[in-house]
Design brief:
single chain; mainly alpha; ABC transporter involved in vitamin B12 uptake, BtuC; two-stranded antiparallel ribbon; 2 strands
Length: 283
Amino acid sequence: MPSDLAGYLVTGLGTGCGYALVGSGLVAVYRVTRVVNFAQGAFAVVGAMCASSFLTVLPHGLGEPAAVLVAAVVGLLVGLVATGTTPQAALIVTLGLAVFAYAVEVLVWGDQPRSFAGLPGAVSILGTRVQTHYLLIIGVTLPVFAGMAAFFSRTDTGKALTACASNPYAARVIGLDVRRMGLLAFAIGGALGGLAGVLVTPVQQVTFDADVTLIVNGFAAAILGGLTRPAVTLAGGLLLGVTQALVAGYGNAAHQTDIALGLMLAVMIWRAVRNPAGQEEPA
């Protein structure tokens, strides 16, 4: 039915925005440090869990930004541990920290799913009712990506991050503190992950181990852009979210993660065939 299709498209776009935010955090860290941050999904869970706690004492509009700030601080702390080593060692460190986060999250928030109220109500799109909160997710994500683009292209700090990503040695020569830029990238990654968790949780309950789904889908979105291009990551996240929504609506929701893994595999094979020498693509 056309009405069902419209509903699947909107919910898929909303979910895909969450994947894109997680993926963009991966991109922000990888561009500067060449570290694949497997703790990125944990940032989203921390943001979501903190928001669920903060909103019991703070109103909407304050609780959510506070949760994103906590996620950014957690990202910075992960960066302090992970940076200063080789990218390969840092990958293992971030994976270990992601597992350690399970224990902390269960200790603080327990092992039961958590959620909180989002934007209330529903809207009618081509005859089908869609939760208004999905439109909020889309409405927040698109300006965030536009702001990121402006930040990296028009601000001195953003240009410094780009310089560190393009040529760390040359960046050091001209006086840039590459380690500090790496820590800033981790903080940005934490904030983006936290924002994803805060936005998505009102429509999808979060648990302490929800980072697995988030990191798989976020990585699938990021890998479309070679872990270096946020705009392509956004497109990848939207494509992934819509595809999963259509499969869940017209087929079996149990295959949603399979789609992400299949997409990653297909893109990696395509890149290997297209670039057998393994040269990096331009950021």
